[in-house]
Design goal:
homodimer, DNA-binding, mainly alpha, 6 helices
DNA sequence: ATATACTCTCCAGCCAGCTAGAGATATAAG
DNA sequence: CTTATATCTCTAGCTGGCTGGAGAGTATAT
């Protein structure tokens, strides 16, 4: 009967279980991504074990490419009650669009780089000191 | 005959021609990406017109996904004389590899997101308050 | 009581690539 | 000469996601 809640975790224990640095956990709490259940009389943070799945969700979402802001939005909706799932799906859809966009950009960049390399290769034999990539840089800056 | 070099440009003119903010040009100079030809007696920067193609090269390379560090390396080699083209090609090849890697990552993320969305969709009808994305977050954090 | 480990807050800095503002001086035009 | 504009240096901030250290206090085991 000595402790009413053996369940509450101090930050170090949360760190151990979540594999996250103590600093990061504090940082998340400051940012509002997670909450403490309460504090000890001395001021130590005490978390319910549910913080672990929350942290897990945060890391998984991060790994999936969501920013902490995105995640905070989602968790905020989740906390406020109804049907976070809808907004989660929405966020994820958005992210997918962003990913598609980014991949297209990257594809373009890649093609451009390849063109430039090919040009350089062509020139190479003829004119070893001329570098088309650098030299004719004058034109297409802004457009 | 009044001016020996009409050719030298002040920073504002460079800004006009390059479409880059004055601040950015100063910033590039501080970073060593470009150099001033000299200064006026009053301390105004004076650039040779060649700085324009250099800036153009910088921006083009940036648009192609190179970092300022990358660009600085390339320009450093170019400045030091021999055959920058080789190292430029090398950098570009490297960047292409990075792009490929990044695209693979993105593809994976996208697939994961799609899986999660699909899961959520399945559950949706059955159990409107259950969000698989959030709820069963407990497992695969670190691995 | 004390040694040890844990935790607290606050402040600072890192990466990149700028951007903003203050306050001083330079130059060009009239 | 005056005024307007351009430029100077210096300091500081922004975004995102932490990370590090100082210095002080707390909890626990013996």
């Amino acid at each position: 009967m000595s402790e009413a809640q053996t369940e509450l975790l101090r930050i170090g224990q949360v760190s151990d279980h979540s594999q996250l640095p103590v600093k990061t956990i504090r940082f998340y709490e400051e940012r509002g991504l997670i909450q403490t259940a309460k504090r000890t009389s001395g001021g130590f943070r005490l978390f319910t074990p549910s913080v672990l799945s929350r942290l897990s969700f945060i890391r998984r979402s991060q790994a999936l490419g969501l920013s902490l802001n995105d995640i905070q939005d989602i968790l905020g909706i989740a906390d406020s009650g109804q049907r976070p799932c809808k907004s989660v799906r929405h966020k994820f859809q958005e992210k997918i669009s962003e990913i598609d966009e980014r991949m297209q950009q990257l594809q373009q960049l890649k093609e451009q780089l390849q063109i430039l390399i090919a040009e350089a290769d062509e020139r190479e034999g003829l004119d070893a000191d001329y570098c088309p990539i650098i030299e004719h840089a004058g034109e297409s800056t802004s457009s």
